[in-house]
């Protein structure tokens, strides 16, 4: 059995030996560096001390266990969320400020707002990202969807797609483009209803963004609208499952090509309700899908022809 001698000296992972090019300037001895200082092992001279730790600080300093690392970077702000916000009536401890100090802070906020943007493009970016956040908040989208829409708006501005178009239209088109890429059951009318521009301008802006940026948008299927419409109509789970099966069979038979997905999904819910014994009116189903009752009747005929 092979054996070897035991190490006579220990190894400290916190101590690093400098290369020969960084020898001691006094005696040319061996220089070692630990977490605090750099010293020479021969003569003991301290070459460097109080080194700056550039890493994050994870220590906590209060009862709320807050960390001094700051907020994370976010794409929803033009400055990635790194700007400073000046308070108004209270200090960091919650104490009321005097009138003189409030006036001083008001002047500081005014000067900060003047120097907040370095260019007109940065000002437009801040306005567009704010519009994206507003639309996403009204439609109750998740934070990830909002971040993707903000990234898409940044890409549109980088490709100079804002020239000749309104910022609000590109912002709404960015939100709708993310919905199409993620398969969310939101129509163009849903986005245009909360946007500050007309639907025609949002549609034109989306066509431009989709063509110039090459979005991986897939055709919306009627089955994707079933859960949202079922929740609005407050139907039972059996009707919802029946409607999903009807929509899936129609999609496999290519009967949904060229039709409005939300209207066809509403027709599937209407037929499923009749099959399950719950009579939904065509008017309330059409209002939930934002279509006309005649659309429901026409799709009913298509479902009857397929014997579904």
From TrEMBL:
HAMAP family: TF2B_arch (MF_00383). It holds the Pfam family TFIIB. Belongs to the TFIIB family. One of its GO terms (molecular function) is TBP-class protein binding. Zn(2+) binds at residues 24, 27, 40, 43. Sequence repeats lie at residues 130-213, 224-305. Stabilizes TBP binding to an archaeal box-A promoter. Also responsible for recruiting RNA polymerase II to the pre-initiation complex (DNA-TBP-TFIIB). InterPro entries: Cyclin-like_dom, Cyclin-like_sf, TFIIB, TFIIB_arc, TFIIB_cyclin, Znf_TFIIB. This is Transcription initiation factor IIB. GO terms for biological process: transcription preinitiation complex assembly. SMART domains: CYCLIN (SM00385). Residues 56-65, 76-91 have a biased composition (Basic and acidic residues). GO terms for cellular component: transcription preinitiation complex. It comes from Natronosalvus rutilus. Residues 56-116 are annotated as: Disordered. SUPFAM superfamilies: Cyclin-like (SSF47954), Zinc beta-ribbon (SSF57783). Residues 130-211, 224-305 form the Cyclin-like domain. Keywords: Metal-binding, Plasmid, Repeat, Transcription, Transcription regulation, Zinc, Zinc-finger.
